[in-house]
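1st attempt posting a full record on here, be nice pls
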Amino acid sequence: MAVPLTIFVALIAGIISIAMALYFRYLVFKEDPGNEKMIEVAGYIEDGATTYLKIQYKVLGIFVACLAIALLFLPSPFETSDTYTRVVSGAINWEQVIAYITGAVGSMFAGWLGMYVGVKANTRTAQGCTKGTKEGFNIAFFGGAVMGLAVVGVALIGLSIWFMIIPDPNIVLGFSFGASSVALFMKCGGGIYTKTADV
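the predicted structure (as tokens):
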């Protein structure tokens, strides 16, 4: 089965998205981080965010590993034989498992990049606002765009590569499930963390 041209277009678009995210990161990081007090406060925020992310990723790593093992023995959309025959013959659901893991890792990467740049953009945005609304807005926009472009880029690259390897729409299930499951827990955990920090 020939790979459609649209898959190659999606892959290129994903690469461009990641490149733009890294370029916006560069634009944010070259801005003035502010005075000593701002940098000190930003350091506390960064330490807290980094610690939170490390703990969450450890828990998510265990969750992803357990779910990946469970997925091995689920009926595969690429196999028609019963579970016992597949396990004995070694025909386990490896395609979906690997797709699931790559989706989860991709989602973790996008989350880490967004958090990292977002924390760094805080004081730079505040410092930019002392010069004018436009300067502050641009820094905030570029900082936020990094996360959005990273998510889109990872999704397009991951799905395109998987579809080139296995040109079957069912492969989208594993990759999307991995990315979505991690994103769900990151959103819930992140919401709890920020509300606790506010209190």
